[in-house]
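Weekly modeling sync, notes
Attendees: S.R. (lead), two postdocs, one rotation student

Agenda item 3: backlog of single-chain predictions. S.R. asked that every request posted to the team notebook include the full sequence so nobody has to chase files. The rotation student volunteered to paste the first one in as an example of the format we agreed on. Action items at the bottom.

Example entry:
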Amino acid sequence: MSQYPRRLIEVDLPIKRISAHARREKSIRHGHISTLHIWWARRPLAACRAVICAALWPDPADPLCPEAFREIARNWMRKWAADYLTFLGAESLKRFLGYQKNPTKLDDNQELRAALLDFIADFANWDNSTRREYLETSRALTQAAHEALGGLPGTRPLVVDPFAGGGAIPLEALRVGADAFASDLNPVAVLLNKVVLEYIPKYGQHLADEVRRWGEWVKKEAEKELADFYPKDPDGETPIAYLWARTIQCEGPGCGAEVPLIRSLWLAKKGNHSVALRLIPNHKEKRVDFEIIENARARDVGEGTVRRGSATCPVCGYTTPVASVRRQLKERRGGAADARLFCVVTIRPGQQGRFYRLPTERDLEAVRKTAAELDHRKQKHHGPLSLVPDETLPVMSGVFNAPIYGHDTWGSLFTPRQALAMLTLTRTLFKLREKLNGMLENGLEIAILCSLALTLNKVAERLTSLSRYDTSAKMSGIIGIYSGQRLPMVWDFGEGNPLLDRSSGWEQCLKWHLDVLSECSKLDLYCGNVIASSALAHPLSNDIANCVFTDPPYYNAVPYADLSDFFYVWLRRTIGNCYPDLFADPLTPKEEEICEMAGWDPDRYPHKDGKWFEQKMTQAMAEGWRILNPAGVGVVVFAHKSTDGWEAMLQAMIDAGWTITASWPIDTEMSTRLRARNSAALASSIHLVCRPRINSDGPGQTDNIGDWRDVLQELPRRIHDWLPRLAKEGVVGADAIFACLGPALEVFSRYSRVEKASGEVVTLKEYLEHVWAAVAREALGMIFEGADATGFEEDARLTAMWLWTLSTGPNGNSHTRNQLEFGLEAEERDDGEEASRPAKISGFVLEYDAARKIAQGLGAHLENLASLVEVKGETARLLPVAERSRYLFGKGTSQPGGRKKKQPVQMQIFGPGAGAKGEEGEAGEMPAFSPGATVLDRLHQSMLLFGTGRGEALKRFLVEEGAGRDPRLWRLAQALSALYPASSEEKRWVDGVLVRKKGLGF
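Predicted structure, as returned to the notebook:
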């Protein structure tokens, strides 16, 4: 039994409401720190805010909770019931109205817990994040908890994040009244955190005002040099974007025409206002001319010239293969410098919308002048760093493929005009530093320069030859190179005017930055502490932190260091001398970055494999354990998709001395995100809650050895209590499985080791097999609504559990007819790599190890279920019902693999001679068949008979042959109806069988 009171996060958390706020936050831009500067895999502020409150505040219903905290918490909750009802959400309002009528209800500690959890849920709302009432309350409760738990009066609890990244966690720690210590190995992340955690709290709105003042000065100064290179049209129109295409020379026999590489000919798709290009082959000049089509219709618009990296010549029709396209572009360092301008996007005074025209000689002359000016500046340049960044851009399989087309340096990503614009803005920032010298206090000067340098980085990210022009109605402007977590090749690209408030130019990027400064200034934050440090050797002393809350890297999920080099090389050229220690090296530090890189780049990172990652993560977890106070709480966010990844992370935490006490899934992703489409991947980020375990290496401590029999006896009780509770919050499937790890591992990880009666030590891997089995058994009980699932054969149990694992709760199943792997991330690819798109997979697919664990937990073996499950490599596929037709109906049936478009279902199942009449009609003769050996087989036979329109055969099968007299068939049908994806054939078929039930007298 712990000698410390449990925190709220260890007993309950309103995850459904927090998740809703976290998902909504993804679409919020105004004032959100995500618009300050790009950072990858950033945690939603809503989730961080809620978790920190729940981690710092004790559970008032815990017997060890200090009465001093309870009393202060009651007073604040009564204040909310009396004065602040208008701010509460609907769910909280009902409870607090009860307290208004009867304030003594809060004397019940269970009621007080519920009130605090309601407050946390509402505080997670972005709209409440700056309200004085929420800030005052949260800070008062944080201070009360800190002092009641032994903190010195006048001090605040310390929250430490050793993988601070984009700064979401430490910012929320400051918001709720804690001290924050943020560290990261990456200089770009450190700089972001300095702005948010140090500069904004110190200078507040004054910083925003000064950044606005000097940001406008930078624009005016840059305009003096750049205006001639971005000329306005004589008729008053203003170009806001220039559309370019890389080119190759057609390799068709006798052709040699210049081929512009364009993916799509659409310029705008806006309902009634659609604009497109028409390619006009010019045989005489061996080139392609363009025409702009207004109010274009789909049938008027042809295909682009490039597909999967191969280029088709509009002049002769020959397709130059991808290898030749790659070779030609590589010879020209990516082909950005000599790309072809094919369209100019403009705005007109007094008119709404965008307009499109072909380039003029005036446009082309401005481009030529730019190239000459850039060459002139290069010749005059003298300094320790190249004028245009010449640092190497690495080739990384599956992540950075632009280098294989010749983009070998970070500077090569920019066209001459883009590079000149960046150099001009960089030089203007140098002028500003000279101008500010001595005008303001030194710290404020650096804060201003840092803010403007980060603004320039936002401009840079959208001012490259890998930036796309957006044709949709929802957005207007340029899509930056990091719309994903990779650096793909882009054939046709958009160039914005960096001086405008459109197309992500300086003015627009400055506004985003100012919004963040102003929004955060409202918070009246304490100053945080930010340093550059490896998580492997943290600078803080032992036992100093009250909470270690971090979101560590997940194997090879994001190559942070290599991605951030794009920004680092420009920061080094703008404000590197303001932070000499941060920017001493040519590129970001990578040797100690805890990221699995061997698979991406075996030449540079041969040693950084999975085993290396696990060793380093164990070391980092041990450092977190070291700096955490024995009474403190740790929270580690993890969202890796493979079971092996989970086992390794959990092993690292246990080896480092942690006891896992809870786990909460918080849905932090929008359902429309790329990796969610057609995917059964983990939807939530699991927040693992842990405490320091006192090991034998602690002074005066002895080993705490657990008995294997006791652990196994307690495990199913924990899962039985936890899983239905998660289901009430809408958490099912893979999210629920991993969310059960917290309570399950508390049983195991409270001991320094667990031994069997023989003295053999139980491994975590062995224990997790039992966890999966316990979860599977409990889930089956829920799926069949308390019915005895053991009455079903193993194939039915496995099918139900498999589909449940892929489901995402009552808001609708995310999986569709074509499933991608659980545990394997798949992205659409349109970047020209030779690798083909992942084939669409028919059926329901899991990572093999996950499928094996589910089957094993149910007492089933995949190798014995070949008629139901197909195993290929690292994946296992639950076969669609239609693919089981040959097994269910005999050799006379055909396999669906050769099914043609719009071919009737019954023809693909029962062969071409079967005929078709629809669901209510009766098809031709069908082969005789025997009822299946299991309930699932018989249900699938019934579903296929319904799906092929064989009503009479279905009636005979269910009534005369007796399949429908088995009540298990109908219980299984009801369960699978709730589990199959709503859009699937299986769902329609099983519901059709259920509809027949009453009419047939069952």
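Discussion: group reviewed the output briefly. The two ends are 54 Å apart (CA to CA).
Action items: rotation student to repeat for the remaining queue; S.R. to check formatting next week.
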